[in-house]
Write a structure and sequence with these properties.
Elements lengths: L12 H4 L4 H12 L3 H15 L1 H17 L6 H22 L4 H12 L2 H7 L6 H17 L4 H13 L1 H10 L6 H10 L8 H13 L3 H6 L3 H4 L2 H13 L3 H9 L9 H4 L13 H13 L3 H15 L2 H9 L5 H15 L3 H10 L3 H10 L1 H4 L6 H8 L4 H8 L5 H6 L6
Helix pairs in contact: 2-3, 3-4, 3-5, 4-5, 4-6, 5-6, 5-8, 6-8, 6-9, 8-10, 9-10, 10-12, 11-12, 15-16, 15-18, 16-18, 18-19, 19-20, 21-22, 22-23, 23-26, 25-26
Length: 414
């Protein structure tokens, strides 16, 4: 008599096959009786086997049930709801879309239509619900890439209904939304979309995806262009298109106080009302100087910014443009400047992360009072210096209480 093959009790698909279909079916029915999500998943799988029409109908039934519900969803039930949403999204994308892409896009849009109602009744302090919809955005727009203009009409209507949400999802789509589909969407959207801030924001993001710089620029309001950060973004895009003079004009447009940029200038610089220039604006200004051929001016500005902020990326950029051997001398000068900088923490952060541990240890020993002040990074700095520079590590270990703690301490005697 032949020996029966030995079957392991370890859970795996290969081992469960030995139970046979009837036994597995019984187990699934039993498990589904106490698990609503599993029961719905089993119905979806059966519907998928029957065909795309029945699967679409089964998904629509669940979407309709969720859309009409009004009960609040507690944080305890939030995870279960999100799992259910993700299961239905996966069935749309993986099982329905290959068979009927146009129908799958329509159903997935109805799935996205659930968001406003759910956002109003789901306790979502961690942002898990919004993250689930943003994670689905690449699927939505990847599916839109595959359908004809008639099927795409459903998505165009959805964009017009809820431009604010779709502006966020267009951004979350990443590379899934290509230039061609973005242009198809733009060509079909109603011109009235430009009349609201959320509509303009949606169109601007679609123009970005469509690689239509002039349309993107036309959707930036004069007030927005007065923001140093937005002006920097404009300048970078213009530089990439070889439009250097326009890039310079975009940057300089924020320098003169006016009613258009009052939002960005108010309270920033009481002497002349000019806005406080941001790192993004300063970096774009350097790029414009380089593009204009003003190499030395760009280098001088890089060094000036490094002296002020002790920025490692700015210093690396500065050094990378120097001739051989000049960069060694400039690096020594940079470390010397850091050692004398009034911001001890910024100096240590630069030297430790460069890394320049010898110079960092020397800084600790030269300025022990500042080194002993408690900081979140002190433990890491100590561990990294301990082997080669134990004396500096010891200074970092013997931390003094912060000035605020000293004020709170009562004198021990009177």
């Amino acid at each position: 008599m032949a020996r029966q093959p030995r079957i392991s009790a370890r859970l795996s698909a290969a081992n469960l096959v030995h139970l046979g279909a009837p036994r597995l079916a019984d187990l699934l029915i039993e498990a589904g009786a106490g698990n609503a999500n599993l029961k719905r998943r089993l119905r979806l799988e059966l519907a998928a086997e029957a065909g795309p029409d029945l699967l679409a109908l089964e998904i629509d039934k669940r979407i309709a049930a969720v859309s009409v519900a009004r009960t609040r969803v507690s944080w305890r039930k939030r995870g279960e709801l999100i799992d259910d949403l993700n299961t239905h999204r996966d069935m749309i994308v993986e099982r329905l879309a290959p068979e009927a892409p146009g129908e799958a896009l329509a159903v997935l849009i109805r799935w996205f239509d659930l968001y406003p109602g759910l956002a109003a009744r789901v306790k979502d302090t961690k942002g898990e619900l919004s993250a689930a919809f943003e994670a689905a955005a690449p699927d939505l727009f990847a599916l839109a890439e595959t359908v004809d203009d008639h099927a795409l009409r459903d998505l165009i209507d959805a964009l017009g209904r809820r431009p604010q949400d779709y502006a966020r999802w267009v951004l979350a789509a990443g590379e899934a939304l290509g230039p061609l589909t973005a242009r198809r969407l733009l060509a079909s959207l109603d011109a009235s979309a430009t009349k609201t801030p959320s509509g303009r924001n949606l169109l601007r993001r679609l123009a970005d995806k469509a690689e239509d710089l002039d349309l993107w620029l036309s959707l930036v309001t004069p007030e927005q262009a007065g923001s140093p950060d937005i002006a920097a973004d404009i300048a970078r895009r213009l530089l990439a298109a070889g439009r250097i003079a326009e890039a310079r004009a975009a940057l300089e447009g924020v320098l003169n106080p006016s009613l258009l940029n009052r939002r960005w200038t108010f309270g920033h610089n009481p002497t002349d009302g000019a806005p406080r220039l941001t790192p993004a604006w300063e970096a774009a200004s350097i790029d414009v100087l380089d593009a204009e051929g003003h190499r030395q001016e760009a280098q001088d500005l890089r060094w000036s910014l490094f002296e002020r902020d002790l920025s490692a990326p700015v210093l690396r950029d500065y050094l990378s443009r120097l001739p051989d051997f000049d960069d060694v001398e400039a690096l020594d000068l940079a470390f010397a400047h850091a050692a004398a900088h009034p911001d001890f923490e910024a100096a240590m952060r630069l030297l430790m992360d460069w890394p320049a541990h010898r110079e960092a240890a020397a800084l600790v020993l030269a300025r022990p009072r500042e080194a002993r002040l408690p900081r979140p990074q002190s433990g890491d700095w100590k561990a990294r210096l301990a082997q080669r520079y134990p004396e500096a590590a010891e200074v970092l270990t013997n931390q003094s209480p912060s000035p605020s703690l000293k004020k709170l301490r009562r004198p021990s005697g009177h």
